[in-house]
Predict the structure.
Amino acid sequence: MSQAGNGRETKKAIVLITGASSGLGAALTRLLDETLPDELVLWLIARNEKKLASFASPLRHEARILDLDLSTDLSYERLNELFEQEEPVVHLLVNNAGEGCAGTFGSQKPESHRQLCDLNVRAQLAMTSLALPFMQEGSSILFTSSVAAFLPQPGFAAYAASKAFILSFGRALREEVKKQGIRVSVTCPNPMLTEFFTAEQKEALLKSYKRFGIEDPVRVAQKTLVAMRRNKGVVVTSPVGKLIRLAAKVLPTGWLLRMISWD
Ligand SMILES: NC(=O)c1ccc[n+]([C@@H]2O[C@H](COP(=O)([O-])OP(=O)(O)OC[C@H]3O[C@@H](n4cnc5c(N)ncnc54)[C@H](OP(=O)(O)O)[C@@H]3O)[C@@H](O)[C@H]2O)c1
């Protein structure tokens, strides 16, 4: 807590960003750092403490490094304790950390499915339920989903389903919390060449039809924050993404699945 001019203690306002140390999360954090009022404190979450600390050191804002693995219950216990002790006001929650699970479902290990659900699904719910009681009128939540949310993806089936979950959850939550003056946006980028993909996966991506939609994470972050400030519910940051969303709405899903599975 900090002291207000009248001697009374004021609560700290924070911006909580998951997956802040690389890719889209890093791009969002840098832009927020440039544009948000100085008094906000950034709470940055990722597993690798050293990487997160070196990412945070040039930031303008005070930053708190939280090296947490959001796929474990222990992380929420630690966060819960921090919230109870400090009672911050959550100005913005960026639910961004996520991971992929490429390949046919049968070729993947059940452990990787559990890991994917823990981070891409459970962590989104856990972070939201943790932060929501500390939000107030004017607070916002941003979820990172994907264009993969619009259409089932053979070869990326569990991942696409997890992103469809986030899109659905985010849209419903937006309606629930709007009476409290809390805004919710869901951003749906196309592929970005970040650490999300291995070198081998990047090579395969650059040979597939998906290469036509590749986006730059900095541009995605810029477009997302502009749309979020305009209170857009679903943000699609590229023309290709918009086309996929439209096609998924108007064309038969079975037909589209045959098209994208053709090789
Ligand atoms: N790249 C794409 O093509 C693409 C397209 C559409 C949507 N997205 C979505 O965009 C989001 C960000 O992806 P990205 O491309 O920026 O990936 P990225 O470069 O791999 O960054 C992922 C971030 O999440 C953190 N992280 C990973 N696992 C974590 C865990 N268990 N607990 C806490 N933090 C964790 C990573 O840091 P540590 O490794 O240190 O934990 C890193 O900061 C994800 O939700 C992804 O699904 C990506």
